[in-house]
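Risk register update: the risk of archive-format incompatibility is retired. Evidence:
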Amino acid sequence: MIANSNYVPRILNPPEGSYFLLGPRGTGKSTWLLQQYPQATRIDLLLGEEERRFSAYPEKIRDVARSLPEGSTLILDEIQRVPRLLPEIHALIEEKKGIQYIMTGSSARKLRRSVSDLLGGRALLRQMGPFMASELKSEFTLEKALKTGLIPLIWESTDPEGRLRDYLSLYLREEVQAEGLVRQIGDFARFLEVASFSHAAIWTSTDIARESSVKRATVDNYLQILEDLLLAFSLPVFARRAKRKLTAHSKFYFFDAGIYRALRPQGILDNSQEIDGLTLEGLVAQHLRNWALAQNKPHSLSFWRTQTKLEVDFIIYGPKGFWAIEVKRSPNLGPDDVRAMSAFKEEYPEATCFFVVPSKRREIYRGFPVIPIEEFLLNMTPENPILT
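Archived output:
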């Protein structure tokens, strides 16, 4: 393994066979692969020469693969740059020549159909997101995570706030504009700002279209672009065995708390406590999502909201357990804070229900555990159940 005193080991269990490793730019995919596969043959499709070569002659990947001895690993970085390579890779996997193919990508937009084809051809899917607190261990601080987020490229920077601004400009310039995903980059930039007001909230395309001064169909397309570029995700409503009438809309999150902070306008008319609370909820959301994605067996992440506006922030359901989690920005809970959770527990007595708050010690309030957020995040690893 390559010696690197600054390397933070990531929590990711790679499969033995060929697989996709998807994740936004700057989340450390290439760094992790260098550590995990130091002897691998690597093709970086961000390099113009490599992109031009394989775009013109995708079949040349067969010559590369067939020159490798059995048991080798071939890594193709940013495979979405040359999607024409994917049918070739599919054919090579089917040849069963003992070569492991690892394909990284920061966009699922051009890969959607081909990824499905290769998954059918036994290439698996893994995702890498921002750091988790349990990966950083003693280096993790809640204050820094809430301010600049946990994207490795930004977390490890000497100027994280400046790097965060550059990161957003990079995505707008290279991933959105250069790929021709939108006609008017100004409209998309305005949409991002308006969308920041929907972070950790119900997504309503009609309202966002009105505030962004674009058509609703355009907003729906922009949302799909965000999700395809892995910059945002949506949570569905938990509706198993539902007795109450539930909302039909999804809940929206940017993939990292720092991205939300950078996009959200802040000024004299903005409520800083509200922004802090939404940032805190988003930080928990990204950890829970990473936890769910890291499981060997599927676990769904959703939320619960009735038409009478009773809401529980997060529901995790799967083979390891059934949890309901509510995030509060104040360590002091009151009767109104537990009303929604009590209603959920009444409907789903099988669930383990608890609160996560910015406090220093565990407590019990009206029968519900109240857990300090730093303790909760630091204990969250793929091997651990959510509540330990």
